[in-house]
Design goal:
The chain is mainly alpha-helical and 149 residues long. The chain is built from 7 helices and 2 strands, in the order ααααααββα. The chain has one domain. Strands 1-2 form a two-stranded antiparallel ribbon. It starts with 11 loop residues before the first helix and ends in a 7-residue tail after the last helix.
């Protein structure tokens, strides 16, 4: 077994700020994402009731569940608190509805499980949900840097 490398902190102010920023969470929804929260009415040839919540909302809820390693009931509570804090007039689905719809949707969430300690960017807009690894979103948004550190 290798000996653990000990790092020496030289700039405590920046080190403390980086530890504080680990818990910093900023979540916002675009207007298009809010409009696509509910399923649009459609003529369904199948028997039974049409869905109330859109596939994009179910995907969002299940991604948050995987990202924070939450059980379904806690995911429902997290989303209710988030909607309340943002002051949105949206309903949050019951945890059993999330469970049933999760089996019907084909969602690939393995990229979050394998992310490890690398930062993950979760982007939600009208086109859906996209998970970017470290640097992918930054490169797309800001372009290539002169120096990489």
């Amino acid at each position: 077994m290798e000996k653990k490398i000990a790092y020496r902190v030289r700039n405590w102010k920046d080190y403390n700020r980086s530890l504080i920023n680990r818990g910093n969470l900023t979540i916002w929804f675009s207007e298009d994402a809010i409009k696509s929260w509910y399923q649009k009415p459609q003529k369904n040839k199948k028997r039974g009731r049409t869905y109330f919540y859109s596939d994009a909302y179910i995907e969002l809820a299940l991604t948050i569940r995987t990202l924070f390693r939450l059980p379904l009931r806690a995911t429902q509570g997290f989303l209710e608190g988030l909607v309340f804090m943002l002051g949105l007039n949206l309903r949050v689905s019951h945890y059993s509805r999330l469970s049933r719809r999760a089996g019907e949707l084909n969602i690939q969430l393995n990229t979050l499980k394998n992310a490890g300690k690398n930062p993950t960017d979760l982007v939600i807009d009208s086109t859906g949900l996209k998970i970017f690894g470290e640097g992918e979103w930054k490169m797309r948004t800001h372009g290539k840097q002169k120096r990489r550190t």
